[in-house]
Amino acid sequence: MKRLANIYISLAILGTVSCSKSFLDKAPQGVLSTATITSDTTTLGMAVNRLYGSLAWREYTLGRQQWSTHELCGDDFIPGSDAAMNFFQNYTYPADHGYIQQYWDRTYQNIHYANVVIDNAPTVGKSAPFSGTLYEAQGKFFRAYYHFDLTNVFGDAPMRDHDPSAEEYNIPKSSHADIIKLVISDLKFASAYLPTRQQWGTSQLGRITKGTAQGLLAKVYLYEQDYANAKLYADSVINGGEYSLFSNYRNLFSPDNLYCSENMMPGGYIFNSSIWSGRWYNPYLQYQGLPSFANGVIYPSPNLVNSYESGDPRFTATIFTKTDTIIGYNNNKPVAFPSNSNYANKKVIWPYLYWNQSNFSFQNVNPMFLRYADIILIDAEASNEQGNTADALKYLEQIRYRARGNMTFAATVTAGMNGGAGILPQVTTTDKTQLRLAIWKERRIELALEFNRWFDLVRYNKVAAADGSSGTGYTENLLKNVYGRTGFSYAKFSRFPIPATYITSSNGVLIQNSNW
């Protein structure tokens, strides 16, 4: 099956485009400027494809900058060999921490790349292969994606709604509300003009689609507690028919399934030693997976491990234990683990035959930055918050049905699963609080280790009280009183500090986030 490959950009010129494998099989390099872009559609097309490469690579640091700002403050991971990660787990990181600055730098760089595309798209007109509007729609999707991510990390931050001139680089923060307005506007444009997955066709698998834009809109509205619009756009994705739940939860994450029916925003990386001169592996893999080969930077937490229901097949699909083996490796003997962990992320661990050059780090990887199961759970949550219990239960059961292996709970009893007790009983409660907590637990398990948990915890604090009933304080209570992480303060640590370097260099234009 023909697939469009990602391009990479050198310092002075745009590189060539391959027409095989994945968008994301090369590392983006260098700087893209407005001066580089002309009305030539090939050149602008390369610039658009460069955005896809940035998604998976985050400019080489999808590892430390991503995990530190998106996961380590939560409860799904514990830090391993990288001492700096302990700062995030313990809430002792300073405002000048290098990982936070890396995230800031790379995110604004990617917003810049999106703006270059958007600002130049009108020069293309209706030329082949794509119209300027189609280039613009892709650019606006990525600008929205990165701004949404940015405001989830920092709250208020400088907003870039165009590629700035030199004198515009030092600007004050925009409010979270204003950033969200731009995000919604960009996503609505993208959803209006992007093709569906089917309209793109198999030669363009990996591109974001109408459904991707609608799905991200649903997520934005959920985070903003606008449940009516969250459900509206989640319904649009579900009823649109572009995506569906992949039949096998474990194989969903296989590198063989980069473009499966559930993957709405592929971030796959295809190993290719011929284009590298040293750094061949993807940082997403480097920072997790097997500690013997990936330096043991982060591990699934015991708290996450203990959260799975008895017999849930997603446990063995997600959690690799110290007694597990890898087919074909080390005579099928268990892998050595360090003393501080018994677990690894199995979603990036595959049989030895997948290891290029017999090296664990030289593998294809399949991170997904938005998938259909997330949209179903958004619809379930939004439905429950609006009192639509029937839809909430219906969508929750769809996730649990797939988790059982596409079986009803009754069928698992008949099949003798879990000793005949069955697995994952169907949730039937109509109590709003109990159903809210059931949906939140399902989100944690279904989307485990996929960059969702910390942002979920941040928003939960604004939705529910300590007991899960409507109110505030849920996360503050969970982290401080249940988990004993007494250093946590929601007022301070729900948002990261703006890197101190930029506060200083702005000459008073940038104001540090409150409580920092």
From TrEMBL:
Every SusD-like N-terminal domain range: 50-222
Domain RagB/SusD, residue spans: 293-516
InterPro entries: SusD-like_N, SusD_RagB_dom, TPR-like_helical_dom_sf
Main location: membrane
Alphabetically ordered keywords of this record: Cell outer membrane, Membrane, Signal
Subcellular location: Cell outer membrane
Name of this chain's protein: Carbohydrate-binding protein SusD
